[in-house]
Amino acid sequence: MPLRTVAEIRLVERPACIVRRWPVFPLKESRQQKQTIRVSSAKALIDALGPDRVILIEAGARVRLDGAPRARGKHVRWIRAGEKEYEPVIRDCANLEIRAGEGERPLVCTKYPYANVVHFENCSGLVLSGLRIGHDPEPGFCSGGVIAMEKCESPTISDCILFGCGTEGLTLSKVKKLTVENTVVEKCTYGLLTASGCEDLTFRKCAFRDTEEYHGFDFADSTGIRFVECVVENVRLSLISGALFRTNLDVEEARIVFEGGAIRANRAAALAEPANMLRTVDTKLTGNIWQGNAHARVVVAKVGTAEITAADIRREQRELRDLIIRELFRHYFKTHNITCTDEELAARKKQVGERRARLGTAGGEFDEVWHREDICKEKLIERARTNEKVEAFIKNNPAYFDGTVVTVKYITIACDPTSSTADQKAARTKLEGLRADVVAGTLSFEKAMQESSPPPAEESNGNTMSFDYSKVLNPFFRGASASYPLVPAFAAAAFETEVGQVSPVILTEFGFHLVKVTDRKAGKGTPIVNPHRPNRSQEIARMTLRHRALNEVILQGMGDCRIVIMKPGGIP
After folding, report:
1. What integer pLDDT is reported at residue 253 of this predicted model?
2. Kind of pairing between the strands at 262-264 and 231-237
3. What are the residues whose beta carbons fall under 8 Å from the beta carbon of 48, sequence distance 6 or more?
4. Which of the residue ranges 1-15, 280-294, 348-362 would you say has the lowest mean pLDDT?
5. Which of 89, 130, 361, 469 has its CA 20 to 30 A from that of 341?
C-alpha cells in the first residue's frame, strides 16, 4: 500500500503476523487548487467573484461593467460615481485571479466617465493578467481612473494594458507588496499613478507613456518604491504642474529607485521633487525638458488687462477656471464700485479669530485679499435678494412654485469662463444659425440636437427633461448630492417660452443653449405649501436670486473682458 493512504505499524511485542493498518486521509485539495470559471460577459464576471478562484475571460470578449446588474453581493458593492453612474467595488476576495484566455486580449471597460473601471478593496493575493482595461467607447474627457486598489496586500498586475481616457492608470491606497510587470499605462488625462500610504511597490519592465496634464507619479506617505527596467516616455505635464516624480516624504525609506530602463521625451517642472528623493541606476535620460522655475513666469491666461501665471495657480492651489472667475468678479467690483472698508475687514478678522478660539483650531494665516473679496461678494448677494425682491420674485413667477411641470428639449455647446472669447463667439454664432434654420422650418430641432450636442448616455432621455422647478436638480451639475435649482437663465427660457417655440440663444456659465418647450402642465396657480418647510418658497427664491446675481457677474465679465487662453509656450 502506498504510504500516503495506509500506514503499517508492526507491534514488536506481538506476533509478526499481526499488522495494524491505520488509514491516512489525503490533504484537502481545496487549499492546493483553485476553482476555475470561464466567463465572457460582465454579469458572468460579477457572479463568479469570490476568494480562491481563477476567472478566465474568454479571448476577444468585451466585458462592459456599466452593463452589469447592480445587485449587491457578498463580494461586490456599487458606489455612485456621478449622476446615474456607478462603479463596482470588488471586496474580500483573497487569492482571486482574473486572467485572459488564450487568443485575442479581452477588454474590461466601462462607458461611465466618472467611474473607475475596476475597484478592489481588501483583496490579498489578487492577480490581474493579460487584460486590456479602460474607458470605452468614450475617447474624450473622463474623471474616473482605470484601476483603484484599497487595503490590498500582495496584488500582482501582469501583462496588462491600462489606457485612458481615465484620469490615471493606478490609484492606490494602503496597498502593500504590489508587483506590476510587463504592463503598459498610457493615454491618461490627469496622470499615471497616485499612491497614498503604500509600502513596497515594484514595477518591472513596464511602460508609462503618452500622458498629459497634471501629474506623473505621485507618492504620499509611501515607502519601498522601485522601478526596474521600466520606460517612461512622452509624459507632457502642463506648465502649472510639478515634477514627474513627487513624494511628500524626505526619508531614505521613501526614496524612489529607478533601475535601468529609460526616462525620455518628457516635459515637467523637474525630474523629481524633492530632487534627492529619486535615485537612478544605469537609467538612460534623453530628450527630456525640465523647465524648472522658469515656468512660473509663464502667462497662462489673460482676462482683460489682468494676467494669470502658472505661479498663481501653483501658489493658490486653484484651477485656472477659478482664477479666471476671480478676475471677472474683480472687474465687476471695480466697475460697480463695490468695496470693502478697513473697518469691515477688521470686524471679519475678529469674527474669524473668535470662531477659531471657540472651536479650538489654529487655522491658517488670515488671507486679507480673499476676505475683502468675499465681503464684496456678500454685499452683491444681499443687494440682489432683499425681502422686497424675494416677494416680488415669488409674485411674478408663480409657475416656479405652484407645481407647474415643463418639458423641454435643449441643445448645449459647452463653453465656460476658461473658453477664449473667440471660442465663445464661434459657439454663439453656430447656435444662432441653427435657431434661424429651425424657425424657418428648414431644419428640425431634433436634427439640430443630433448635429450639435454630444451623444447622450443610454440611461438618459437624451437632451430632453421634464421638471418642476421647486424640486429639480441642476441638470448641468454632474454630482449626486447637491439639491439645487436650475441655472436661472435656463429656467427662465424654459418657463417663459411658449409650447412649441424655441428660445433665443442663452448663455450660462456652462455654455450656450437653445431650449424648445414641448409640453407644459399647469400647476395650482398658487405656491405649494410644505407643512414641514413653510418658508420653502422664500428659500427657493433667495437661492435663485443669489445664483442669478453671481451668474450675471460671470456672464457680464465674459462679455466685457477679452479672455485669452495661452497655449504651451505662452502663445495665444
Report:
1. 87
2. parallel
3. 37, 39, 55
4. 1-15
5. 361
Residue type at 325? Answer: I
Cell of 333: 467690483
d(CA 400, CA 520): 12
Cα separation, 330 vs 120, whole angstroms: 46
Answer yes or no: are the C-beta atoms of 135 and 169 closer than 8 Å: no
pLDDT band for 182, please (50, 70, 90 cuts): very high
Assess contact for 139 and 163: CB atoms under 8 A: no
Cα gap 440→27, rounded to integer Å: 83
Of the candidates 255, 165, 252, the one whose C-alpha atom is nearest the C-alpha of residue 201 is 255
Neighbours of 6 (CB within 10 A): 11
In one letter, which amino acid is 139?
A: P
Q: Is 25 helix (H, G, I), strand (E, B) or coil?
A: coil
Q: What single string gives the DSSP state of each residue in 385-401?
A: T-HHHHHHHHHH-GGGT
> Which residues does 380 contact at the CB level (< 8 Å), separation at least 6?
332, 333, 338, 549, 550, 553
Here the cell at position 445 is 430641432
Q: How many CB atoms lie within 10 A of CB 11?
A: 10
Confirm whether pTM is higher than 0.70: no
Give 393-560's CATH code, choosing from 3.30.70.100, 3.30.390.10, 3.90.550.10, 3.10.50.40.
Answer: 3.10.50.40
Residue 269: CA count within 13 A, CB half-sphere: 24
Distance from C-alpha of 160 to C-alpha of 181, rounded to nearest angstrom: 8
Main-chain phi, psi angles of 153, to 5 degrees: -115, 135
- Domain borders along the chain are 190-297, 393-560
The Cα 251–Cα 529 span in angstroms is 63
Q: Each residue of 494-521: pLDDT tens digit?
A: 888 899 999 988 887 778 889 999 998 8
C-alpha cell at 522: 399647469
Residue type, 182: N
| CA dist list (Å): 209 to 184, 185, 233, 400 | 8, 7, 5, 52
